[in-house]
Design brief:
Layout lengths: L3 E5 L6 E4 L4 E5 L4 H16 L7 H15 L2 H10 L3 H8 L3 H12 L1
Parallel strand pairs: 1-3
Antiparallel strand pairs: 2-3
Length: 108
C-alpha cells in the first residue's frame, strides 16, 4: 500500500492514520497482538481513504480489519468445536468489536 508504519510512544491513542503523510503510527505500549489489530484497523482507514474519524469511518475500518484478520474456514471450524463466542474470539486473537464487525458484515 506504500504506507509507512511507525511504532512510537503515543499519548492518547493506540494508533493513528495520517493521510497527508501516508503514515500510520502505532503505540509502542501495546503488545504485538494488539499492535496487529490496531494496524489492520488503521490500514482500513488508509484503504478506504478516510480523512477523519467519524463513527461511520470507525465502523468501516473495523469491518476492513475484521475481514483481513478472520479466516472464514477457521471461524467455521471454531463454531463446530465450541459455540462460546468469547472462546472463539480468544482463539481468533481479535477483539469483541472486530468479531462483531465481521459477523455483521457476513449477515449483510
Amino acid at each position: 500500500m506504500g504506507i509507512e508504519v511507525v511504532v512510537r510512544r503515543l499519548r492518547t491513542a493506540n494508533g493513528l492514520w495520517f493521510p497527508e503523510y501516508g503514515q500510520v503510527l502505532i503505540s509502542d505500549r501495546l503488545r504485538a497482538g494488539h499492535q496487529r489489530l490496531v494496524l489492520a484497523h488503521e490500514l482500513g482507514h488508509a484503504a478506504l481513504m478516510h480523512y477523519d474519524d467519524r463513527p461511520k469511518h470507525e465502523k468501516q475500518a473495523d469491518k476492513f480489519a475484521a475481514g483481513h484478520l478472520i479466516c472464514p474456514d477457521e471461524l467455521a471450524d471454531l463454531y463446530e468445536w465450541c459455540p462460546d463466542e468469547q472462546r472463539i474470539i480468544a482463539e481468533l486473537g481479535v477483539t469483541r468489536r472486530l468479531f462483531r464487525a465481521y459477523v455483521l458484515a457476513q449477515a449483510a
